[in-house]
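Entry 14. Structure prediction run on the chain below.
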Amino acid sequence: MSMFPGEMAAEPVNVNEFQDLARLTLPKMYYDFYSGGAEDQHTLKENVEAFSRITFRPRVLVDVSRIDTSTSILSYNISAPIIIAPTATHQMAHPEGEVATARAAAACNTIMVLSYSSSCTIEEVAASCNAVRFYQLYVYKRRDITRTLVNRAERNGFKAIVLTADTPRLGRREKDIKNKMIVPPLKNLEGLLTAKVVSDAGSNLEAFANETMDASLCWEDIGWLRSITNLPILIKGILTREDAKKAVQAGAAGIIVSNHGARQLDYSPATISALEEVVNAVEGKIPVLMDGGVRRGTDVFKALALGAKAVLVGRPVIYGLAAKGEHGVRRVIEMLKDEFELAMALSGCPSLKHITRNHVRTERDRLHSML
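Output returned:
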């Protein structure tokens, strides 16, 4: 981003421009950690590009003088169907870390999902502002640690548990291996677990995850998790109709269609491509959300047209935080919300209930029309 002498950096006008700013702001190791995906990064690219292959079928001459973007998740009202996904170690992006992100979420009247690997503790985030928050969880080989984290989240007013189910082992993130990525201490695990795992093979994050995560976790364990908390449990990481049906049977309160930001199994499908299969399998019994590749308000609209209740946004939040702190996170959420509102108006949808499957055309629709 070259500038003439004395020229001020322009304020970003879209979410992608925050990524450019973050690349200039962050040390390479940290930028690579946030931006990178697994192996060939095919799914990383596909998460974004798959949205571009979905087109609109807008309706005209509809009264859109008033647009209502609001919705609710698990009965909690939010200003738009855009919530903050769990992402790790925000203090690598900005000194205020998750506290800044939490305040931005509260200012935007939306939900933040706090990562288990947050830089700030559950208690610090809870005390930062009054807002609805969910807590993202991995299950450890030592179940007492999992129980302790769940109890702390519940005690500090978190409203739901988001169980990440796609990480029996950590995906191969080659940028982190090359950079010999070092994980900062995880404050939520102080006194419970040490993150100081030495690995000569590359990223100590991979070594830490493989030593601590419970690779035996299975569907039967959802019952155990439900037994230790009164909070509703959303299962994150589902990509198929088979697992969607199992999630319903296991008593999940919701599903998040996710491929872990393309950081786990490369060549898994783009989440927007897997969404409709999961939505159809669930048959409206529980809400389906999705994350991965959302960079425009039009992406939010497409996800809702294909049956999502809301989208979660991960990397753009980090990029906003790195570039401009709490203000940057607010701007990212506001940009997506404003673009989404415009897409609703231009598609003839004054509220979310007006967004239907008939408002979009997918690749599969085009193929069927040719048969």
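The first strand starts at residue 55 and ends at 56.
Filed with the rest of this week's runs.
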